[in-house]
Amino acid sequence: MLLQEAPDLQEAPDQLQGRPELCFRHLIHQVVKLLTHGTHAFECGRAALDTPCPQEEASARRRPGSMNPPIWSRAFIMLLDLRHNDHVIDHYRGLFGWHQWLEDGLCWIIVQPRNEEITVDDLLRRLNGGRDPEHRIMEYPTEEAIDELQPVFFVFEDAGTWGFLEFTYGMAPHDHTLIELSKESRVWMTTWHFKGGHTVLYAADGRIRARMRDFIFTEHIIEEGDRSILAGFRAMLDGLDPQDYRGKYSAAFAFMEAATGMGVESEWLDVEDAPVVILDNPDA
Predict the structure, then answer these.
(1) What does the DSSP 8-state code read for residue 267?
(2) What total number of domains does the chain contain?
(3) Residue 212 pLDDT > 60, yes or no?
(4) 175 lies in a domain?
(5) Residue 171 belongs to some domain of the structure
(6) Whole-model pTM?
(7) Which residues on neighbouring strands pair with residue 254, listed in sequence order?
(8) DSSP state of 282
(9) Is residue 7 within 8 Å of residue 159, measured between CB atoms?
(10) What's 69's DSSP letter?
(11) Is the alpha carbon torsion for 95, 96, 102, 106 positive or negative?
(12) Phi/psi at 128 (5° precision)
């Protein structure tokens, strides 16, 4: 199987030595995990009590809110989320600053299968119109892919989540392909090309649930489907200057990382003799 394996953002702190771009994200993951898992354990413990004793019920009535997660923990998580989003947007600013050609066109797709039996080969066949795509090793992928007439993808994997990065022209799959890809799966996509097409999309269980078109131009944004799904992305855009185009590209990636836990690191693109996937039947 040809793929690049994503580093684990939950790795131990000593493994993050010399990698400052991951340290803050690691801290956020760990603190939020501690708070949310503690709250979840509390709630699960309460749910397990089929017949709480009268003394417990009376005690709960005397302490309003005692059955809910602590307010301070929820507020702290919200604060961390905001700081985390800003930090991740800055991370992608750096990525696009180093790989400026990505601003001309790309397509980034993240798939989270709901069924453990769905493999990456299954997903690639769905992307390629039902046929197995071509697997190839490219000596200098970001240079050689420009000569291809078909979409060229890097494939990344992180804890059962799959990322497909088309890094040359911004060749996004057709809607019917995304619908097929989303069967028994969640699919997030952002894409753009040199003529525009700035889009963020979410599909699940064989349906496109939400789409935002032309997100690069705030005054011309078109939203389709359930607006609440992309509300977080809209909030990120609202916090940016209207002319901050790189910030908006970065926000699209940051939003998808927040939704899925799957991100992209700059060094993943600075590879040689690396595996790629070429779709030779994407329009079927």
Answers:
(1) G
(2) 1
(3) yes
(4) yes
(5) yes
(6) 0.74
(7) none
(8) T
(9) no
(10) P
(11) positive
(12) -105, 30
Cα 191 to Cα 227: distance, rounded to the nearest angstrom: 19
Please report, as a single letter, which amino acid is at residue 10.
Q
Among candidate residues 130, 206, 146, the one with its CA nearest the CA of residue 175: 206
**Which phi and psi angles does 102 have, rounded to 5°?**
-65, -25
Q: Which candidate, 201, 215, 265, places its Cα nearest to that of 244?
A: 215
Instruction: Give the dihedral sign, CA 253/229/71/56.
Output: negative
Which region holds residue 125: left if phi is over 0, alpha if psi is between -120 and 50, else beta?
Answer: alpha
Beta pairing partners, 237: none
35 in any annotated domain: no
Q: Report residue 73 as tokens.
A: 């923990």
The parent domain of residue 179 ranges over: 101-278
Cβ-based neighbour number of residue 35 at 10 Å: 18
pLDDT digits (tens, 9 = 90+) for 21-43: 455 555 544 444 444 344 333 33
Bridge partners, residue 193, by sequence: 196
- How far apart (Å, rounded) are the C-alpha atoms in residues 273 and 146? 16
Q: What is the pLDDT of residues 121-150, one digit of tens each?
A: 999 999 999 999 999 999 999 999 989 999
Residue 115 forms part of a structural domain: yes
How far separated are the first and last CA of the chain, in Å rounded?
A: 24
Token pair, residue 94, equals 């750096």
Q: How far is CA 129 from the centre of its chain?
A: 23
CB 28 within 8 A of CB 77: no
Find out whether 153 and 279 touch, Cβ atoms under 8 Å. yes
Give residue-wise pLDDT tens across range 68-80. 444 333 443 344 4
Residue reference for tokens 């600013």: 93
Return the amino acid letter for 208.
I
Say which residue the tokens 């753009």 belong to.
192
